[in-house]
Amino acid sequence: MLENLTAQPADKILALMAAYRADPRDTKVDLGVGVYKDASGNTPVMRAVKEAERRIVADQSTKAYTGLAGDPAFGDAMIDLLLGDTIARDRIAAVATPGGTGAIRQALELIKMAAPDATVWLSDPTWPNHPSIIKYLGMASKTYRYFDTDTRNVDFDAMMADLGGVAAGDVVLLHGCCHNPTGANLTLEQWDKVIALLQAKSATPFIDIAYQGFGDGLDADAAATRKVVAAFDECLVAASCSKNFGIYRERTGILMAVSKTADMQPLTQQTLQFLNRQNYSFPPDHGARVVTTILTDPDLRADWEAELEETRNGMLALRKQLADELRRLSNSDRFDFLADHRGMFSQLGTTPEMVEKLRADHGIYMVGDSRMNIAGLNEKTVPILAKAIIDAGI
Ligand code: PMP
User: Fold this and answer.
1) Predicted local distance difference test score (pLDDT) of residue 17
2) Tell me: the pLDDT tens digits for 167-208?
3) 101 C-alpha vs ligand 1 centroid, how far in Å?
4) Which atom of ligand 1 is least distant from the CA of 130?
5) Could you point out which of 25, 99, 179, 193 has its C-alpha 20 to 30 Å from the C-alpha of 70?
6) How far is ligand 1, taken at its centre, from the CA of residue 263, in Å?
7) In a domain, 2, yes or no
8) Each residue's pLDDT tens digit, 325-382
9) CATH number assigned to the domain comprising residue 103
10) Contact 360, 387 (CB under 8 A)
11) Annotated catalytic residue 142
């Protein structure tokens, strides 16, 4: 049986991580995988997470199963964090999932059950796992243009033109904030226009939000998601706690499915729980419990928010330092977009050949589409990267 297997495409980002580890140069810079790193290159356990874990270990009296949706308190805390009181709670079905990826996977399975003929629209570019899972599930997808490689900003006219081709019942996947891989984001006015267009097309929005708190702040980063949820009868929201709680390996995420009316919620909820049961039964609990503990304890929550704010401001400072350095070295403002982008990533907008040159000549590792993890930089490596970009003639 196993001899019938054919090799699956390797994950490019994970391959890049391995190449970085094997590089003997001590000046190498890792801007590859999407993991936050502090100035010393570590991915720390956040203070509030440590304290929540201490309390959980001390107080937990059972490891018995929770429910198929996970602990309901986690659902309530996450809905509150992401949506606030935007819509009535009784319209929202929610299940805990293994990470944001699990939420995306379950959302796609839900779409496949409810609308087997729907096309799922993805931004070009997007996080590569989006098209990969869609293809794996045998679903139809199309792309809409998103990034202008000249301005390194959103190509809004092209995006709207392509979304003009959305058919009634199609699903449009949008990054709630901090677009991965580009770092370029819609303004709230542009969100309004996208919402109006998708409403006119009778499409269903599907928000993937993996970086709430990494862009402009917890509420600002949720603003677009709240607008969408408020505007549509139905929508899907997949959220990840990996980045903003720094609990990547705990696999903590949530899928929310908003129904038109409260009486439709139980069927949606039951279906989501069924999907959890088929795929992995009960979702992981530890990370979700950590998140709930933090969000429901005022002191822990304040400390988490403060540390997240430090993280966010640290990334913004690196963006500014890099843009300033490139402005000085290039004698132009053509890299100012780096300070305007938000989140962990920026797409430099250069060719795979240039990306390879930066790796070979300077030991700078970024993904082949020129996505850089800004959090992989520190004050000392920013000038090295800026000089390498100019030396390479980018
Ligand atoms: N969506 C996007 C856009 C992402 O960048 C990521 C993480 N790379 C995820 C979802 C999922 O993250 P995780 O499964 O690790 O929670």
Assistant:
1) 86
2) 999 999 999 999 999 999 999 999 999 999 999 999 999 999
3) 6
4) 1
5) 179
6) 31
7) no
8) 999 999 999 999 999 999 999 999 999 999 999 999 999 999 989 999 999 999 999 9
9) 3.40.640.10
10) no
11) no
Q: State the Cα–Cα distance between residues 286 and 141, nearest whole angstrom.
A: 34
Q: Tell me which of 48, 69, 127, 285 is the catalytic residue.
A: 127
Percent of the chain topping pLDDT 90: 94
Residue 304 burial by Cβ neighbours in a 10 Å radius (0-12, 13-18, 19+):
buried
**Is there a catalytic annotation at residue 112?**
no
Q: Measure 219 CA to ligand 1 centroid, in angstroms.
A: 19
Query: Same structural domain for residues 282 and 138?
Result: yes
- Do 255 and 103 contact (CB within 8 A), yes or no? yes
> Which of these is catalytic: 30, 162, 208, 221?
208
Does the active-site annotation cover 80? no
As beta bridge partners, residue 195 has none
**394 or 158: which carries more pLDDT confidence?**
158
CA 241 to ligand 1: nearest atom = 16
Q: Is the pTM of this model over 0.85?
A: yes
Look up the domain containing 28 and give its range: 10-44+309-391
Ligand 1 centroid from CA 381, angstroms: 26
Residues 313 and 290 in one domain: no
d(CA 107, CA 173): 11
- The yes-or-no verdict on residue 15 having pLDDT over 90 is no
**Closest Cα to atom 8, ligand 1: which residue?**
34
pLDDT tens, residue by residue, 209-224: 999 999 999 999 999 9
Q: Considering only CA atoms, which of 300, 301, 344, 298 is closest in space to residue 319?
A: 344
